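Recap quiz, item 2
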Amino acid sequence: MGISRRSLFKVVAAAGAGSAASALAPLKARADQAATSDETIGMLYDSTKCTGCKACMAACNQANGISPDTETSGGRAHMPVDLNEHTLNIIKVYQDSSTGDHAYIKRQCMHCVDPACVTACMLGAMKKRSDGVVTYDPSLCIGCRYCEMGCPFNVPKFEWSKTAPKIVKCQLCRDRLALGKQPACTEVCPAGAVIFGKRKDLLVEAHNRLDSNPGRYLPKVYGEHDAGGTQVLYLACVGFDKLGLPSYGNQPVPHTVDAVQHAIYQGFVAPVALYGVLAGVIWRNRKRAGETGEQSEQP
Amino acid sequence: MNAQEQARPVGGRILTPPFLALTALAALSAVLILWRFVAGLGASTALNDGYPWGLWIAFDVVTGTALACGGYAVALLVYVLNRGRYHTLVRPALVTSALGYSIAGLSVAIDVGRPWLIWKVPLFFWHWNHRSVLLEVAMCIMLYTLVAWIELSPAFLERGETSSNPKVRSFSRKVLPAVRRGLPFFIAFGLLLPTMHQSSLGSLLLLSGPRLNALWNTPLLPLLFLLSCLAMGYGAVIIESTLSSRFLGRPLELMMLSRLSRVMAWILSVYLAIRICDLFVRNSLLAALFRFDLFSIMTWVELALLAGPIVLLASSERRRDPGNLFLAAMLLLLGGALYRFDVYLVAFQPGPQWSYFPSVTEILITTGLVAGEIAAYIALIKLFPILSGRKPTAPARAAVLGRSYMTAD
Ligand code: SF4
Ligand code: SF4
Ligand code: SF4
């Protein structure tokens, strides 16, 4: 009896120590490899160049075959207040009358280098392609919405109004990419505020702009390292947190949960071992009870 | 095996007025569930893109399965720590586990947007995303629901042995010994699976870490969820035993429950110690704890509800007072439930533009599911050998409003 109790406590203690240690022993992020891969693509949005014309919103709806959201805005087309089931791409405006700060911001999927939505998804309906694009496959989606719970940028949206709903989000115009075209939003932008390219080239371009025009920008390329890096990069003159892009640190969002689960499960060795211990202890206890006739057979 | 340990059907009429009332609530729930599938989640719930998980996940699944941890918690005592004296508690606890987990599974089917594809989750193993905590939770909950019913199956087969139908009789006689022989393997599964998914219900929200209030956002979430679900399991057993003694005029096994309450208080103390240390270690949180905003107040309420039982159960005299026991268990269940609600709905902050309060439909569906669960529990204990102990005598039945104790242990 003493042994069984000890073994139980050992298990509990191990689980505890495991989750504590995990906080200290970061897993090697597989993210870095993808980030440094030269072939991944992305977008660069320069808030200081954006004129707020919203041509990209109309183009996005058209490219994705989604009728524009005219309801949440009192009837004026292309004026939704946030990303939603009809809106994969939005231009928002930030205004602060006391400081005179004023900036546009384009929001769509960031195509994170190590995306929380992909980590969340049970059957891999959300997938990170080798070119960096995060895609969605409804045939593997059961609509659990854990991707929405995970995404730190509130990007995946659910078709609440439908009886057979899907998740919707920007997939970097994967259909257009397959035809050799660039995304609709970057193609249509008259101000060149959002451009498409390889992530490494976009990073060089962003840093060039920062270097050649330091007064115009905050000295930071959002998405270069944030949340482990994103395929979509941002330049702005107003604090990114005010534009809805908080500083999440440089670790990929799934990092903590990966580390904790790895520490507890040890690649599924721990559950198998625990099962062995439990089955052994139960078997022995039962045999003993059988010998002394103390315990009844019924469960 | 003495006569008192033998489980027997409680017997009596099933279609009593309270039972019918519960069934009516469940029927209303069934109608609303149909409507949810016709109208969609947007029309029937208050869920939104900021709060994609609401009452059904936070209560029916996360809290409901913790309340249904009785089978797991008691099995741990009886089969691993070899405390045979708690043996009579196993079956009633297993009934709540099997029912609670079945309801949780049903709730998931109602909650997900594309339930017609759920079958792919267990079967499409080549698509399994091994990093997905939700996949692990889903698989464990499905398997454990199955295991709980298998663990309970001897109760049905024993009843079958005495059936008037000869076919049922011979089937039960044939199958029962085999089931009993295989049972240890299922019992071990019945211990492993809840250990995994109850802790993982905590890990789930680690993915929402960047948007989770710091008072709850700790890598120890899985450990805290595991410890609290064990304590809640014992609490649920105490409540259930007290209620069935009250309403079915059965003797209250006070000594056993008082011993159990001690185990419960110990686990709860460990939980609280870890929770409080965690708040202290991450220093900045002390300030947050005394800010007295929504988050700090919720934390205090949580801590108070969970400290209550420890105080109430501190002396052995108090542990022998049935009213006190009941109150302590009740506080614990409330505290444990609040902890889960806090993590899933309060600590989770998608942004100021979002808010969530469950819709009437959501609340009525949940209420109906719980009512149906209670009705099923009553029917099962009346029909099948679940509860052990003396047959309630006429005076005991008359004394439903008073209490009858079974102090002999
Ligand atoms: S922004 Fe959100 S939806 Fe897009 S890849 Fe990152 S985690 Fe996924
Ligand atoms: S809602 Fe669909 S895409 Fe999102 S995590 Fe669930 S299964 Fe994956
Ligand atoms: S890449 Fe395509 S889908 Fe994404 S925001 Fe631009 S237009 Fe919309």
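The first strand of chain A starts at residue 41 and ends at 46.
Chain A touches chain B through 79 residues (CB under 8 Å).
End of item.
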